[in-house]
Design a protein that fits this description.
about 400 residues, Rossmann fold, Coagulation Factor XIII, Chain A, domain 1, 2 domains, six-stranded mixed β-sheet, about 25% helix
Length: about 400
């Protein structure tokens, strides 16, 4: 999904959220008193360290803008969102909001566990300033969007995490706020509901509402945002163009993963290489370039009908491409001793990003893994910047007109 008005000029739009010099700290206590006596004796002496979740953050979000906030764990993303909702107050600085705010924060935030879903809808909406008559008018829409059905009259303490998200998001979007604040909780729902939520976010964007989204999915943020704020150690690391900020963020977060390795070792990989078509081993490939993955193996005894496979995964662990000798109709009746299986890919279709290689040898029914090496090798792909998304495809564009 890509918002339709991503390029519209927001420079002259009114300010929806103004964050000025905001700092927020928390006390991290160093000692743990194990008895009541110790608590009484040492209550004045208990030491703590001051953890600064946010330091001197300045931010201006325009009306109609979608801003995503990214950053590693502990960078202050959720704290900033809570300050925007006034659940917490800053140690210094100020936050000014122009318009009605609805927020979807932690799972269950704003819900009473002993009340039913129906009762929590009225409770949650009343906190946002709605009367019972106003909630009556939108109640059916909330229940329909949540897809909870008969569960709406169950206590929410019996809800799954996905059901919490459905109810919370349904309330937040149906009260028609001017400013919608969303924390990472959208990642909990199933794929169908996530797509439904993203479509609703798109409708909000088209109607000119303001959205602030905290997410670990930086690629999604780049697709749906006007700007991205990158927080690190409570400070603004970068703020600006979504594609540029995400590229810098990916580069900073790149690490070599510790790949898992398992299997019976009846077939054992002695060497795995990935090269270009000239046989040169590289860490950076260009979109469209040819690559060759070679699996050198050894079987100490005869193994009947083995399957050899490989796969490319993105930085979130999602398979981008995978294949094996069974899928490609290459029967290998039996292996014994040393050998090589070669996968030639004439055109690498992936766009910019870091990818990881996994290889495997297993039985045809996949009940037994002989040797599996998971995401042990990484490589980067650079593209010429003519396309967006995950894959490059041939595309001819024609135009006719005056």
């Amino acid at each position: 999904m890509r918002i339709k008005d991503i390029d519209r000029d927001l420079s002259k739009a009114p300010v929806a959220l103004q964050v000025s010099g905001v700092s927020k700290s928390f006390r991290l206590y160093r000692d743990l008193n194990l008895s009541l006596k110790e608590k009484v004796i040492n209550w004045r002496k208990r030491g703590y360290d001051l953890f600064w979740a946010l330091r001197d953050v300045d931010l201006e979000v325009k009306q109609g803008e979608t801003l995503s906030i990214i950053g590693p764990n502990g960078s202050g993303k959720s704290t900033l969102l809570r300050l925007m909702t006034r659940i917490m107050v800053p140690d210094s600085g100020s936050i000014r909001a122009n318009g009605k705010i609805a927020a979807l924060l932690d799972l269950g935030a704003g819900f009473h566990p002993d009340l039913t879903g129906r009762e929590n809808i009225y409770l949650n909406a009343s906190i946002l300033g709605f009367t019972r008559r106003e909630v009556d008018a939108i109640y059916d829409r909330i229940v329909e969007f949540s897809e909870l059905g008969d569960f709406i009259d169950n206590q929410v303490k019996n809800y799954s995490s996905g059901m919490y998200v459905r109810l919370g998001f349904s309330v937040a979007i149906n009260v028609q706020p001017d400013i919608l604040l969303i924390d990472e909780v959208l990642a909990v729902g199933d794929e169908a509901f996530q797509a439904k939520c993203l479509q609703k976010i798109n409708e909000f964007q088209e109607s000119g509402r303001t959205i602030v989204l905290v997410t670990h999915n930086s690629d999604l943020a780049a697709q749906i945002s006007h700007r991205i704020l990158w927080l690190e150690h409570g400070r603004v690391k970068s703020l600006g163009d979504p594609v540029e900020v995400v590229q810098d963020y990916h580069a900073a977060m790149r690490v070599h993963p510790k790949g898992d390795e398992f299997g019976t070792r009846e077939i054992r990989f002695t060497e795995v290489t990935m090269t270009d078509e000239r046989g040169e081993s590289k860490k950076v490939y260009r979109t469209g370039e040819g690559v060759v993955v070679r699996l050198h193996y050894e079987a100490a005894r005869p193994v009947e009908d083995p399957i050899f496979g490989m796969g490319f995964y993105d930085h979130q662990g999602q398979m981008v491409f995978g294949t094996n000798t069974r899928l490609r109709d290459l029967p290998i009746p039996r292996v014994e001793g040393r050998g090589t299986v070669e996968f030639r890919i004439p055109h690498l279709a992936m766009l910019d990003g870091r990818y990881f290689l996994s290889v495997a040898a297993h039985t045809r029914d996949h009940q037994t893994d002989y040797h599996w090496i998971d995401k042990f090798l990484y490589f980067d792909v650079e593209s010429p910047g003519r396309d967006a998304g995950y894959l490059s495809m041939d595309c001819e564009i024609r135009w006719s007109g005056g």
